[in-house]
Write a structure and sequence with these properties.
By secondary structure, the chain is an alpha+beta fold. The protein has a domain of about 40 residues. A 4-stranded mixed sheet has the order 2-1-3-4. A hairpin with a 4-residue loop joins strand 3 and strand 4.
């Protein structure tokens, strides 16, 4: 089974940031069944990373692995849209 690596860019400890973290954790734990993990990058404390990675809006999640990289902007509350944007196979029931 394929492992997924994500990077979530947020701006401070806001409700929107917390919501995005929670939603991505749920995707990693339930849909990817533990085959996904992510790092949270706060662009307020690490602005150079945001500049280097061309992050223009937050929250933004980037799928780092598997390649090619994909990005989705928003709080990740529309799970189906996030899965499609990050090209994660939809779960079959």
């Amino acid at each position: 089974m394929e492992e997924y690596k994500f990077r979530l860019y947020v701006t401070g400890q806001t409700p929107r940031s917390a919501h995005a973290i929670s939603n991505l954790k749920q995707i990693c734990d339930t849909i990817l069944e533990g085959r996904g993990n992510f790092d949270v990058i706060d662009i307020l404390t690490e602005p150079q990373i945001a500049e280097d990675e061309l992050i223009l809006a937050t929250p933004t999640v980037a799928r780092i692995r598997p390649l090619p990289q994909r990005r989705v902007i928003g709080d990740l509350s529309d799970t189906e849209r996030v899965l499609l944007g990050l090209q994660i196979p939809l779960p079959t029931s």
